[in-house]
Known about the structure:
Layout (H helix, E strand, L loop, with lengths): L3 H35 L5 H6 L9 H9 L25 H7 L2
Amino acid sequence: xxxxxxxxxxxxxxxxxxxxxLVTVVIWLILSTYRILNRSQVTPDIKKQLQPLTSSLExxxxxxxxxxxxxxxxxxxxxxxxxxxxVVEEATQSATSSAQP
Length: 101
């Protein structure tokens, strides 16, 4: 039979286990929440893209744009339509003789 001393000790141990588990879960939740709130969601690439643009035009940039190589325009209408070519090959003598019985 289970004695009263064993039951009292079991209750005492279960209470300790429950309190220790509760403290562990509370600390775990607090640390997880702190980590989520303090971790940056913005990567360095996005930070670079978020930098404000200057409102003035730089003269060097304008000079580079005016000095770039310009490609000549193509007149696509001059190409016109071409007729498809039909290529007919004559069968060789060896190919026709092997096909006949």
